[in-house]
Amino acid sequence: MTRTTMLDPGRRLVVSLDGTTDLSRADIGDKAWNINRMRALGLPVPPAVVATTAYCRSYHAAGGRLPDPLWRGIVDQMWFLEAETGRSFGSPLKPLLVAVRSGAARSMPGMLDTVLDVGINSAIEAALAAETQDPTFPADTHHRFSEAYRHIVLGMTDAEVPSDPWQQLRGAVEAVLASWNSPRAQAYRRHRGIPDGGGTAVIVQAMVFGNLDDRSGTGVLFTRNPMTGEGPSFGEWIARGQGEDVVSGRADPQPLVALRERLPEVHTQLMDMAVRLERDRGDIQDIEFTVESGRLWLLQSRTARRSPRAALRAAVAMVDEGILEPGTALERVTAEHARALLGPVLDRSCLAGAAPVATGHPVCEGVATGVVVLDPDEAERRAGAGEDVVLARSSTSPDDLPGFIAARAVLTEHGGATSHAAVVSRELSRVCVVGCGEGAVTSLAGRQVTVDGGSGEVWLGEMPLLSVEEEIDPDLVRLIDWARSRAPLAVRCHAPAVSIDELAVLRLVGLKGRVAPEMAAHSLGADRDRLDVVFLELVERGLCTHSGSGLRLTPDGHRRLSTLLAEERMNSNQAVAGRLYREFCGFNSELKQIITDWQLRDHATPTDHTDAAYDQAVLDRLRHLHEAVKPLLDRLGDLAPRLRRYAPRFGEARARLAEGDHTFIASISKDSFHTLWFELHEDLLSITGGSRECEVAAGRAL
Description:
By secondary structure, the protein is α+β, with helices and mostly antiparallel strands. It has 26 helices and 27 strands. GO terms for molecular function: ATP binding; kinase activity; pyruvate, phosphate dikinase activity.
């Protein structure tokens, strides 16, 4: 049963992960939640305890320090690790060493590196040497710990590492808590739109040792290839290594076949557990494991970062295998994935006779061109000035995250497909090639290169590209078919009870003439990723086409829109439509006069907007008109559900005007008052069966 430390009434701030805790990912972080779930499944996981995200918030509320009551919460929970392992932390008698890990609710590159082997000192090194009859293992462990602690916790390579195990543990815990507000963590949250208030959990987990002997090692397994999505598994392994050796990229690992040849029974166990975890989670899993003297331990399992192609292939394959329903598969493939799959590729016909200047492991597909820079700060600075850059590193660490975000592509000389660079690049959908070899990419500093993340090749200069928009992947076609069968072009909006269907999308494109996806999503109140899937299908059906920076209707699209508008008119209550239209006409002249007065002060001379009093008077008239029109806008949904969007769109224009952005009066490129009024007028005309000619004759020209 979970033992809990109660530091504040009603709040559980430190808990043991024994498979029974009912706390959520938001409470204990994704990593701890997964550890607890693996324990619940009976899988071999080293025992662990977690300080919750509320613990982190308490730390920061205390001014970024760890008060004794908070610290005692972790001290009190160490009993669980000692009871599970039969070892004692801080004692030379069967000493216990621990790993200290960060773990936010959402896996977040940029947090603190894991601190391994916490609790070792000279006396405990000697005790472990006596216990194992091998002085090499504890000496290697002590050396690894000291170097990592100086770099990760103390931030100084020549700093003195405390010898007291409890002081080491407290320092590591505080470093994890402080890293929530580190520049690299903040940069990632800004990039992904993650709120700052969540906090990170802190996991303290008993160590198992992949560097113990010749039947030990560490590795990473993906239940499917994260580059292609193909099964059954893909991974890498380092004999006599510890957990960070593979993901850091500092060492070049071997494929998992090396584990099968060295320890076949362990390999079989690992494959069986991987299948079990994938079916339990219903998604590709990224599993970190350690083998200690022939015994398999799973350190963590999480949803794998995968390339766009892998996301698509795996989603479709899992439907065929009975793991997923088609609706869930649709949610797994974002519009960003679709755009990447349909993006340009290198024109190979122009490469005849040329040779790449570097070649490595392709880990995130796409093609990108930029100038090679070696420093992540330089990459961030130059990208901020509008320059396309490619970040090249010997190997990467979490400190490089801002450079990853800024760069068009990432290159490394060391590391494999499960390295930090590979995982983070897939998370960011950043073109990436790793393991190019010593000096292969850092020697390209200052030169323009083109990186092909699909082939793993790097070419000098800007290479020509080919469009593949019409060569739709067969898996993507199946996904689109599922979307059409579930709800033909139906996409739920942010606002409850409002749906975005074929008519709403086509009507918006038709009214605006040409519309960018970002603008369409804003106007329709739709999720951009889901709306992009709708646009993709409209293009495939020949109803829309790409034109410049937006989409426009094709002749077939215009005909389809006319049919849908006629159906809408036939199904509308014409008595309600007539009343709403007459009410609208009562405001029409006033709105047009306000717009005219804003643009032409004396009806002949454009105003220069230097008379603040005049401008404010016009703005006040527009504000009063909006208040008067709001009851009409609120009733539009009674006529046709898609018209409900006008009320929030007008409200947004009014809010932007109040903030001082006067382009929302009449700009044709935005949802301004004038643009929205024009669109609403057209919609009311359509539903009532009116025409532009009738409007002109009645003096209500659009």
